[in-house]
Amino acid sequence: MKERLEELQAEALTKVEEAIYLSDLQDIRVAYLGKKGPITEVLRGMGKLSKEERPVIGELANKVREAIATELDAKKERLEKEELEKKLETETIDVTLPGRPVKVGGPHLLTSIVEEIEDLFIGMGFEVREGPEVETDYYNFEALNLPKGHPARDMQDSFYITEELLLRTHTSPVQARTMGEYQGAKPVKMICPGKVYRRDTDDATHSHQFTQVEGLYVDKNVRMSDLKGVLNQFAKQFFGEDREIRLRPSFFPFTEPSVEMDISCKVCHGHGCSVCKGTGWIEILGGGMVHPRVLEMAGYDPKEYNGFAFGMGPERIAMLKYGVDDIRHFYTNDVRFLKQYHKA
Question: Between the CA of residue 35 and those of 8, 30, 38, 41, 180, what are the distances in Å?
Answer without folding.
Answer: 15, 8, 9, 9, 88
